[in-house]
């Protein structure tokens, strides 16, 4: 399978600031990719280079086998910046139809495409509205519809659900999951729990360096369970350590515990033992996760 995106030895400087430092990774068609990192880590610079908005100082960047931004590939990659805005002067229909025509569709085809993408985000009834009549969340969903015009092979979404209420955020996550069989999404977000639900691979940038690039899996010899309690329990760690399969318990943050253990097929499954322990001691737990959370995989 040929790679959709290949990056090797990528460097970008802004004056003396080394914004991207020898970045290397490959993205093939498949599950959504999480792009994670603190503010100033280089995420926006990397996405801008992939889109062809800016050029690197050195290194190789290939998108669909060509340089980023090549005219013939413009309709194959779409990007939604976090601060994307709609023109308040024109209706949603006119704006989306215009964007579709820019991709080579006839006017009649473009109108149908505008309706199709608005229907994907649940806003087909607002097609003739102007942006000023829509809520912030609805305008955000319109910009996501814009990014989906022409069924691009790669879609880059920067903070796609920021500002959306929980229901609409869930709808967007469901849409990404539904379309992932034919579209490769690159998702940048500060909401690690959201990325964890959608992505199996993560690119973690820090100070311009790619600190981690891996598939989110656990090792085969040692397993992990994440336990979130309703309240802090001082005697929880000693009690967990009494379970024979447990090798380590770490209090990763308030009321959250990362439990590492070895599998023993002759014993009752550890998650069952933990639930029994909580029941016996009348401890209220909020969540038991088989494996590490994305946050723990990155920082613990």
TrEMBL record:
InterPro entries: AAA+_ATPase, ABC_transporter-like_ATP-bd, ABC_transporter-like_CS, ABC_transporter_ATP-binding, P-loop_NTPase
GO molecular function list: ATP binding
Keyword Hydrolase on entry: no
Cytoplasm found in the keyword field: no
Superkingdom: Bacteria
Keywords (A to Z) from UniProt: ATP-binding, Nodulation, Nucleotide-binding, Transport
Chain segments annotated as transmembrane: none
Domain ABC transporter: 5-232
Family membership noted in the UniProt record: Belongs to the ABC transporter superfamily.
PANTHER family: ABC TRANSPORTER ATP-BINDING PROTEIN, ABC TRANSPORTER ATP-BINDING PROTEIN NATA
Record-given protein name: ABC transporter ATP-binding protein
Organism: Thalassotalea nanhaiensis
